[in-house]
Amino acid sequence: MRHAVALSVGLALAQGAAAQEEALPLPSGLTAQVQEVLTDRPGLGLTYRFRFVAEGFAGVGDSEAELETVLADLVWLCESYALPRLAVTGPVPAQVVISLADRPSEFGVFDPDVTQVFEAYRPQEGACIWEMF
Question: Out of the domains of life, which is the source (predicted)?
Answer without folding.
Answer: Bacteria
